[in-house]
Amino acid sequence: MLTGGAGFVGSHLAEALLAHEIDVICLDNFVTGKPENVAHLQGRDGFRLIKADVSDFISIPGPVDYVLHFASPASPIDYAQLPIQTLKAGSLGTLHTLGLAKEKGARYLLASTSETYGDPHVHPQPESYWGNVNPVGPRSCYDEAKRFAEAATTAYRTKHGVNTAIMRIFNTYGPRMRPDDGRAIPAFVNQALAGVPLTVHGDGSQTRSVCYVDDLVEGAIRLLFSDLAGPVNIGNPHELTMLELAELIREITGSDSPIEFYDRPRDDPSQRQPDITLARTELNWEPQVDVTDGLTKTISWFRDQMHGDFTAGAPASYSVRETQEHPRHKVAVIGTGYVGAVTSTCLAFLGHSVCGLDSDSLRTSQLNQGQAPFVEPGLPEMLKAALSTGRLQFTDRPADALSDADFVFLCVGTPPGPEGAPDLSQLEGAIQSLAPYLRPGVVIVNKSTVPVGSGNWTRTILEDALGDDRELSFHVVSNPEFLREGCALDDFLYPDRIVLGGAAADVNHVAELYAPVLDQSFEGGRRTLRPALITTDLASAEMIKYAANAFLATKISFANEMAQMCELFGADVRQVLPAIGADHRIGSAFLNPGVGWGGSCFGKDVAALISTSQEYGYTPSMLQATVGINKSQRASVVRKLQRELHVLKGRRIALLGLTFKPGTDDLRDAPALDIARRLLAAGAVVSAFDPVVKSLPDELSAIRMTRDAYEAADRVDAVVVTTEWPEFRSIDPAGLRRVMRGDLVVDGRNCLSEADFVGSGLRLIGFGW
């Protein structure tokens, strides 16, 4: 398995592994890698490309002989734009891939970096040098992530006996480099070919040692096939100044571009040269490609991209994406809850003038100060950035938000009523409040999840509210949201599809708002991504939202049904579900057995579909079964505890995780809270830890909230993992055993590694095995 396999280095490494007759499962989330880099490998026997993020749990069915962890943003521009993703790739990604290597008994190769040496005081740099790194500087997200990765790799080798190796990669270049990644060689080459000045930082005296990608890959292969643990420097000891490199590229391209000097970035290393004695003596490896030859090949590749001569495995486009000018509009967003706050912030980020409206003045004040009212990764940073442009504001005064708005987004809650039908009172109030302030021709865009047919209902409510002003024209469009808590910004900016329902002219007008998303022309857009624009009538757009969530909920319930059967039949659902998910017609997403789904969407939307269907005399039995299976999963946790502990009265039980999913502070319909209620009703004493939740509703005041997982487990008879927060996957079983009175751990998300618990003195049970 190769992570980052669609990246610059990873794609070349995938080729080399296949040439050695090694099957390659290539994982990449395509943040900096591109499917085009390995397009020429698609369809070859032994190669498989999977879109996956190593920050998430990794499960690969069947045997794995080698695990190569090359996933990480790796350029200065990436550090600036993706610091958290960079840290996650080096920390969580390393832990997840090490866990897989441990589980499979595989040889593990970590791609580390010469950046671990920082701005070195020792020259050249041997592997024994500890480095000079600024832990809080602009490069720290990459430097420290890789230093952590090396420490984790070493720990897994010494504690768990994983067969690991660490390679420290020095500056590498060659075909398939991203032309806009901010590194010196692609920047100089692009500038020389375009005839614009070559930009050299400082006086150009800082040095680098550049290694052609074929040489680097050969070093990686030799280290992988050796029994060396490392770290091992893999790089070219031939040292060049930046000025010499710029002049050499100018000479090879035949360019007459001048050289201009700019201030050096903070923490830019003054010198970089590997001591490759270890690689020479132990691996019989040293670079073979002369820098002039390597640069000639690289420049030829870049030149081909400029002239449209796209070769196999090359990116589909060469030049930095031109910023396309799109119309800017004035937008009002009614409701600043989860959907409204994200929608307001993202539309302002795309260049529109946005005013968020909410009757809660405390919330609008909080948002105006750049404070997100809920946990959502990345939102506080984008919120502050959008506010600083002056394009975003929040208010509790309708006239300020609505009087000059071209578009009005409805983002208010539609909670379920007693019988499951959505309560539309908030939405009705919001629509009625619009009437005195609307401008002619305004487009009302409904993002609230509403029953099918609500578009016509919206029009009727607004017409009645207009009263004597019946001549005012307006348009209604349905634009259902598909935002997942914990990754809402990505879902808004990099969606699979955008759904718009309504009259063709109205839909096209709303599509203008999303033009930067549809063509990915905004800063940080992904050129390889082209979201689908799906246009429908009003009713179909409203149905799409319900149908999508109903299907996902059903898929999870199906996984839980299979888990129940596997327990009865003696099969292992952890082997069954990945195997059926490998079928492209099925897919592995949402085939996750455990305590079941929760949150504000699945239960509400399925209940609304059932309720609306019954109004029309139809009973959707499959959806009713979906809900029933989900409820039974929560009860099954208690049954497992009763089976193992017998009487629960007076037993101490710890719950790890309270939110319905990781990455959010949302407790709505959280399985953990339902399980807690059942345990309290059975007389158990319940403690809990969640990384973001620090207090609970009064009805659950009997639960003892703790500062960490080990405090929650103190003197308990059993621990139940109810939310798959990443930190729980790396919990120390021995440390857990020391504080527990009992020895039972119930994995309610099948997220723990069974191998980690071997010899710990703890009994680990899950769902479906």
UniProtKB/TrEMBL annotation:
It is a single-pass type II membrane protein. SMART domains: UDPG_MGDP_dh_C. It is found in: Golgi apparatus membrane; Golgi apparatus, Golgi stack membrane. Its EC number is 1.1.1.22. One of its GO terms (molecular function) is NAD binding. Its main location: Golgi. Residues 654-754 form the UDP-glucose/GDP-mannose dehydrogenase C-terminal domain. It catalyses: UDP-alpha-D-glucose + 2 NAD(+) + H2O = UDP-alpha-D-glucuronate + 2 NADH + 3 H(+). Keywords: Decarboxylase, Glycoprotein, Golgi apparatus, Lyase, Membrane, NAD, Oxidoreductase, Signal-anchor, Transmembrane, Transmembrane helix. PANTHER family: UDP-GLUCOSE 6-DEHYDROGENASE TUAD (PTHR43750:SF3). It comes from the Bacteria. Coiled coil: none annotated. Belongs to the UDP-glucose/GDP-mannose dehydrogenase family. Pathway: Nucleotide-sugar biosynthesis; UDP-alpha-D-glucuronate biosynthesis; UDP-alpha-D-glucuronate from UDP-alpha-D-glucose: step 1/1. SUPFAM superfamilies: 6-phosphogluconate dehydrogenase C-terminal domain-like, NAD(P)-binding Rossmann-fold domains, UDP-glucose/GDP-mannose dehydrogenase C-terminal domain. This is UDP-glucose 6-dehydrogenase.
